[in-house]
Write a structure and sequence with these properties.
With 245 residues, this protein is mainly beta. Helix content is 12%, strand content 45%.
């Protein structure tokens, strides 16, 4: 089954954040890449959105790290090619006349697993897309190569919840119910069941000598011999009543 997008965005529905942020998601693509070291396929999704000033933005949501990153177009003086980059490599990138010494933190080839909507480029399911992520201490760049003609460079900004609300008017990362919260609900359920059980009716059996009459009108005789008579009495748990405290 093809993976589905998880971010809280809808194609064709405007996202209105703080001025001047107003964006329109027009396409979403889900990528997958198998890690040869553990055999696990990792997924991430990218939403192409039209932003203010008609700029072409991309919003990435990583299914593994849960990070949301906003990417805006950038241009470098150098001719950069992600297929020629390796993790750990140092690459100089010149943006707007300033040269940055970046390190390649990720490089690989993702495969388009699913897509929906419209895009600036012709994309197809099964298409491989080479990528590289380059970082400095305070900057992240994303380089993508769709084919031999198209190599795009984007400047990224990782958005926390406050940043997501400022740009899009809401949190777009899906909410995750924590394991601790689930455990708390389970504990409450178990406690409630025990409490209900302790307050519900139960049957107690007691015996008295034949010479002593202690039976209540509702008691049921369950056994009798020459020495004693045994009764079954319905009682309720909890304080103050029946055979309890």
């Amino acid at each position: 089954m093809a993976p589905r997008p998880k971010a809280r965005m809808t194609l064709g529905k405007h996202l209105i954040g703080a001025p001047p942020w107003r964006s329109l998601p027009q396409g979403v693509v889900v990528y997958g890449e198998q890690d040869p070291s553990d055999g696990v396929t990792y997924y991430w999704e990218e939403w192409e959105v039209l932003g203010y000033e008609n700029l072409d933005f991309w919003v990435e949501y990583d299914h593994y790290t849960k990070a949301v990153t906003l990417y805006r177009p950038a241009e470098s003086t150098e001719r950069l090619d992600p297929t020629r980059m390796r993790t750990g490599q140092v690459v100089n990138v010149t943006l707007s006349g300033r040269t940055y010494r970046t390190t390649v933190t990720e490089a690989g080839v993702g495969t388009i697993r699913s897509l929906d909507g419209s895009f600036t480029y012709d994309l197809t399911v099964g298409q491989p897309v080479a990528y590289a992520e380059l970082r400095t201490n305070d900057m992240v760049l994303s380089l993508e190569k769709f084919d031999d003609r198209i190599i795009d460079l984007y400047h990224g900004t990782v958005l926390d919840v406050a940043g997501q609300k400022a740009h899009f008017g809401k949190r777009i990362a899906p909410r995750n119910v924590s394991v601790k919260l689930v455990g708390a609900f389970l504990a409450i359920g178990v406690l409630a069941t025990m409490l209900f059980s302790s307050c519900g009716p139960r049957d107690d059996t007691y015996c008295t000598p034949r010479s002593v009459e202690q039976a209540a009108p509702s008691d049921q005789v369950v056994s009798q011999d020459d020495d004693q008579t045994c009764y079954r009495r319905s009682v309720y748990g909890g304080g103050g009543g029946g055979l309890g405290k």
